Amino acid sequence: MIKKLLLGLLGLLGLLGLLAVIVIILVIASFQSDDMKITRSATTTAPPATVFKIVNDFRQWDAWSPWSKLDPKMKKTLEGPPEGVGALYRWNGNNEVGEGSTKLIESKPNEKVGMKLEFVRPFAGTSDVQFTFTPEGTGTKITWAMQSKKPFIGKIMGLFMDCEKMCGDQFLEGLANLKKIAEAEPKA
Q1: CA dist list (Å): 178 to 36, 60, 79
Q2: What per-residue confidence (pLDDT) applies to 57?
Q3: Can you tell me the mean pLDDT for 84-102?
Q4: Kind and range of the H or E element at 10?
Q5: Selected residue with higher pLDDT from 179 and 95
Q6: 141 forms bridges with which residues in the sheet?
Q7: Looking at 21-30, 109-118, 173-182, which range is the least confident one?
Q8: How many Cα atoms within 13 Å fall on the side-chain side of residue 135?
Q9: 3 state SS of 147
Q10: Which residues fall within 8 angstroms of residue 91, CB to CB, at 6 or more apart?
Q11: Are strands 75-79 and 35-44 parallel, antiparallel or unpaired?
């Protein structure tokens, strides 16, 4: 009888301890920033016009996007114009790439490409993405930036995973691929 009572008490204490840990995680997450911003840059010897042309055209994305390599069987569709404002890229792939769309909403030749990124899965959400091309010497500084609001679940996940670093590392991989392709283009 006492043994059952002690086991029940230990079980209750364990449950209360687990509940306390969950509450602490939720409280800490609630103090996390609502905003997420990821920015990475790379420099290429290619001129801004060359890099702009590659980024502004979704038909060229598979050659440099790090996500295309994560799921070679990913289903992709292009809608609207082939490049520039209104071009739309939809994808549906494995759990690493998820499902969503990217729409070009701004296209300033040789300066900037702006996009609206919409995720369907693994988590629904939207992000604003910009690629800027700044002349640097005889080449170009390419900056890839993404901003979004973090949902509460994203704040919780951020306590256990460094999402900024994970995504930032993929940006760096994509920029390295983009640099290689741009530098292989014939010089004008």
Answers
A1: 24, 10, 23
A2: 94
A3: 92
A4: helix 2-30
A5: 179
A6: 43, 134
A7: 21-30
A8: 6
A9: strand
A10: 67, 74, 75, 76, 97, 99, 100, 101
A11: unpaired
Which H or E run contains 140?
A: strand 139-149
Element (H or E) spanning 50, and its range?
helix 48-55
Please compute Rg for the chain using Cα positions: 22
Please tell me the predicted confidence (pLDDT) of residue 116.
97
171 close to 144: Cβ distance less than 8 angstroms: yes
pLDDT in tens, 127-156: 999 999 999 888 999 999 998 777 656 666
For residues 157 and 51, give the distance between their C-alpha atoms in angstroms, rounded to a whole number: 34
- Starting at the edge strand found earlier in the chain, the sheet holding 88-92 runs 35-44, 139-149, 125-136, 112-121, 99-108, 88-92, 75-79
Q: Give residues with Cβ within 8 angstroms of 6, minimum separation 6.
A: none
Q: Tell me what percent of the chain is helix, strand and coil, each rounded to the nearest 5.
A: 40, 35, 25
pLDDT category at 108 given cuts 50, 70, 90 is very high
Q: Residue 178 in contact with residue 54, Cβ under 8 Å?
A: yes
